[in-house]
Amino acid sequence: MDKQSIINRLLTLPTEISEAEEVVLQANGRLVVAKESLQAKEDSLLLGNVIDGKNAEIRAAQIRQYTEHEREALSDAELNLKNAVARLGKVRDEFRALRAVAELMKEAA
Questions:
Q1: Are 73 and 48 in contact (CB under 8 A)?
Q2: What pTM, to 2 d.p., does this model score?
Q3: What does the pLDDT read at residue 69?
Q4: Among 49, 67, 85, 105, whose Cα sits 20 to 30 Å from the Cα of 11?
């Protein structure tokens, strides 16, 4: 990577970081909604007398059975957030590394 390529990349990375931060915020919002949706469904099942198990283990199994879709959506949202955070970390790491290279190049000149 030559000096001009480093400069160009350093100039574009702040925008990429900002975009990655926005993706993380959106993914976090989707995670919150998924958690709320699961909780609302569980509450509805319990309050609507749909769950009638004799003990806590049976009731928990019944809830899991009725909330399969919501649990899947929650898992997807968690994975999406983890991927978004990882992407943001990679872009920030690249930015820090290129800044260090630019400093070294400046000192060598």
A1: no
A2: 0.86
A3: 97
A4: 85
